[in-house]
Write a structure and sequence with these properties.
Layout: E1 5-7, H1 11-18, E2 31-34, E3 39-45, E4 61-68, E5 86-88, H2 99-104, E6 106-111, E7 113-119, E8 125-131, E9 138-148, E10 154-164, E11 175-177, E12 179-180, H3 182-189, H4 199-203, E13 215-218
Length: 250
């Protein structure tokens, strides 16, 4: 699964990776401990909120803000989102909570890395930070929805799609986020309306990342408290009974 992640890459770096459309830089705070129910950013096709594509550009992309934890349009209250921070790749095409979003409202959730916890002896859990070996952005496959309250208010939410863990991460958890490579960005976001969405090609992306796509470092338990934030959370640290670290931070 994915229950905590980081995003400290800046606007220019994201614009270079995703080809974002904007006349003004998006001022993004560096975040090192993003938790469920908090605001996150995601890349969607320009104009997709209005059901179209801006300027006829089928690949135009924009960065938008969502709350982490998808709330389906039919939910009676937004509280359901607390249980929808992840969506299993194996069932998103069938489950009522996700199938319409999979067909029409896919997004890319940018990340600088994410956390997992490894069970240790005596009931301890060692947090680890998982990132790309080259320090680049990680692109999570995501889904988004708009929920409308009885008073007419709107809440836009998103979830991270997960799949089986690869060999590198299986020791920490049996699930991992679906990580898209550059070629997968266009496929996942789709070319236009849902009748032009290549469902077979998008479904083929819902697989574990290659073994060498991610790198792991043990970090301190300060990350356990969502009130903690800052680069110090990524400093290498391990419990006394943990195997040696796999490397140093880049």
């Amino acid at each position: 699964m994915c229950g905590r992640f980081t995003l400290f890459h800046n606007w220019e770096e994201m614009q270079a990776v995703y080809g974002l459309v904007s006349s003004q830089p998006y001022m993004l705070p560096q975040r090192y401990n993003i938790a469920p129910s908090q605001d996150i950013v995601a890349i969607i096709r320009a104009g997709s909120r209005e059901g179209g594509v801006a300027g006829g550009n089928l690949r135009a992309r924009v960065l938008e803000v969502f709350r982490w934890g998808l709330v389906p349009p039919w939910a009676k209250s937004p509280g359901l989102g607390a249980r929808m921070i992840n969506a299993r790749a194996e069932t998103i095409a069938k489950k009522p909570a996700f199938r319409n979003a999979f067909r029409r409202r896919r997004c890319i959730i940018p990340s600088s890395g994410f956390f997992e916890w490894q069970a240790m002896e005596a009931g301890q859990k060692q947090p680890v930070w998982i990132a790309r070996p080259d320090g680049g952005l990680i692109s999570f496959a995501g889904l988004w929805e708009t929920w409308r309250g009885p008073d007419g208010s709107e809440l836009e939410t998103a979830t991270i799609v997960t799949t089986e863990a690869n060999g590198t991460l299986r020791q920490f958890h049996h699930r991992m986020p679906v990580i898209l490579d550059a070629a997968g960005h266009d496929i996942w976001l789709g070319a236009g309306a849902d009748d032009r969405f290549d469902r077979e090609a998008a479904s083929a992306l819902l697989r574990p990342a290659p073994e060498d796509a991610v790198w792991v470092v043990s970090v301190g338990r300060a990350v356990n408290d969502i009130r903690n934030d800052g680069p110090h959370l990524l400093a290498p640290h391990r419990l006394a009974d943990e195997p040696p670290d796999q490397g140093e931070l880049f």
